[in-house]
Amino acid sequence: MQGDKICEYSGKITSRRVLPNPGGGPKMESSQQLTGKLLGVDTTETSTYWSVVRPDGTLFGEGQGIAMSDQGDMATWIGQGVGTIGKAGAVSFRGAVYYHSSSPKWMRLNSVAVIFEYEVDAEGNSRSTLWEWK
What we know:
Blueprint: E1 2-19, E2 27-38, E3 41-53, E4 59-69, E5 74-85, E6 91-101, E7 113-120, E8 125-133
Antiparallel strand pairs: 1-2, 1-8, 2-3, 3-4, 4-5, 5-6, 6-7, 7-8
């Protein structure tokens, strides 16, 4: 069940590259930088994910990221999601991420799954919303 909203981020894709995927659909890697509040703490996140176009035209992707606060708190995450391609290359993903942190502010994330909505427009502007999955 969807629980409390724990984060809202906005940011920009900073780089993209095409990856080899012998025998599979087109595969692309994207990196981005986001800012927002994670559990109420001002946060900058850097992340990289890849996505591949599946035979039915949908996307599957995996990623990893690092969230850091101005006070030196740090958390890492890994995740997966499924998505669709929109107009002019915009993408929309839904999925789950799993955090790890030693920071007292974010340690509770170690024991929860986090579900997300992630959108990128044709210009590379991104936004994401994350909820605790109870």
